[in-house]
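Lecture notes, unit on protein representations.

Consider one protein chain, 131 amino acids long.
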Amino acid sequence: HLTTSLPLSSEGDHLRPRIDLIVFVIDIKSKYSLKNVEASLAHVDASFFLGKVCFLVTGVGRVNYCSVDMNAIWKLGEVYCSPVLYCELELEGIRNATAQRLLRMLQICAGHIPGVSALSFGTLMRNSSND
């Protein structure tokens, strides 16, 4: 399910499936994209920041067209204790690898991978990004 901003409409609450993972997409070519994500973060329950939120930064192959301060994105990841993934959606190989990574994250967050919790996965992601 996709939405362009939060909060979600209360219409259809009874039909909405459980939310296992929230992926905030930030296009580095658009300052509006980052502002929209920052505004939406206030509407996310604090419990989701325990391994069920990540930031996906797109357009990283076009750093010359960057409109977003990369330090601001890193700070979001740190403040919200959530992993930051970088990708270039225009390259098929990277797009497929990113989709596989997100799918694996979703499987973990939904509890489909025995022995790995969303909280421990989030910690592993942060530790590996620091290396």
